[in-house]
């Protein structure tokens, strides 16, 4: 009877062959592999170009900062020596050193002068450390050429000069120091520290730096 019952069950619902279960596992693995492949494909598509264009909101920007500005320095210098030497009623070259402490080039187009009655101080040595007796800022009658009776008058260089960032430029100003006929004999063979300039005409920025030294002047 037991054998008959079992035989009857097998006849009604016989067990699946071993290879059927194996095929089922392969189908499940195939579906799982296809799902993984689909995920990988989706990831690749996410980085590809599409027809969905992305715009930019108005007001989108970045941040920058402008530099701070430091004043130039103009000082007397003995190198190179003047090509011309003055005498009563005549003119001489004046040598200046323009120093730019800024991190950008500066274009200099001219200077502002003190009055024509503001005189230079005389010195017996080229280093301008030993005053010349009898040739002082009160008695030398040496002044900047083309200065006027008004302090701060503007005088333009013949050609603008560009002083590079963190650099200095030596200028020889042709015939821009003058001596009146009233100059005393004590001012013979004397070095002069010209009166302090009252200003400089300059702007930030510029092209190629001017090569030092440069010969220039103002003529009015």
Notes on the structure:
By secondary structure, the chain is of the alpha+beta class. It folds into two domains: 43 residues; 144 residues, no CATH class. Helix content is 18%, strand content 29%. It contains two helices and ten strands; from the N terminus they run H-H-E-E-E-E-E-E-E-E-E-E. The longest helix is centred in the N-terminal third of the chain and has 29 residues. The radius of gyration is 45 Å and the shape is elongated.
Order of helices and strands: HHEEEEEEEEEE
Total number of helices: 2
* Radius of gyration, in angstroms, nearest whole number: 45 Å
What is the strand content? 25-35%
Q: What percentage of residues falls in helices of 4 or more residues? A: 10-25%
Task: Point out poorly predicted stretches.
Answer: 1-11, 40-44
Class by SSE composition: alpha+beta
In total, how many beta strands?
10
Largest sheet: 5 strands, mixed
Oligomer: single chain
Q: If you average the pLDDT, what whole number results?
A: 85
Q: Which outline best applies?
A: elongated
Domain unit count: 2
